[in-house]
Design a protein that fits this description.
By secondary structure, the protein is mainly beta. The chain has helices at residues 6-13, 71-74, and strands at 28-39, 42-54, 59-68, 77-86, 92-103, 109-120, 122-123, 128-137, 144-151.
Length: 154
């Protein structure tokens, strides 16, 4: 079975966003994420670039580019995800992402990923800080990603 391309969903949803306003006027939510991935008894430093386009007060879509350089005994992992977000209020964000995990090393390969995530945004004057936790579902495995996102909305 071929994996559904999540980028197609994001591309289809973007035209709908032009006629809807996000709460507080912010549509663009770029972020830098710093944290860790815990899997199979090991915890490795994780960093990511994230972007969400907020269609309205409750919904958004975005992309995630994440790296775990020391995972799999130093072979490293790169994740590329497209995600849909639900904001039940101004601070809580729940996400559902789909994408690919690429393992490096002598035998590189790619796996499908489904990600469930939750974060709570603490809004400061010009940016937000978002403690985040995510669970990835990858070929029967469930690594947990946790850390803090630094968001600069505009």
């Amino acid at each position: 079975m071929k994996f559904f391309n999540p980028m197609a969903l994001v591309i289809l949803l973007v035209p709908l966003s032009f006629s809807i306003n996000a709460k507080e006027g912010y549509h663009h939510l770029p972020a830098i994420f710093i944290g860790a991935t815990h899997f199979d008894g090991e915890t490795d430093f994780t960093y990511a670039l994230e972007y969400e386009y907020k269609f309205n007060e409750s919904f958004g879509a975005g992309v995630i580019y994440e790296k775990v350089d020391d995972a799999h005994h130093g072979d490293g992992i790169t994740l590329k995800l497209a995600a849909l977000y639900y904001h039940p209020d101004n601070s809580v964000r729940l996400g559902l992402g789909f994408g690919k995990e690429k393992l490096g090393g002598d035998h590189p390969h790619t796996e499908d990923v489904i990600r469930l995530s939750a974060s709570y945004d603490y809004h400061l004057e010009h940016f937000s800080i978002a403690p985040t936790i995510a669970v990835d579902f990858i070929d029967g495995e469930t690594p947990v990603v946790f850390g803090i996102g630094f968001i600069k909305p505009f």
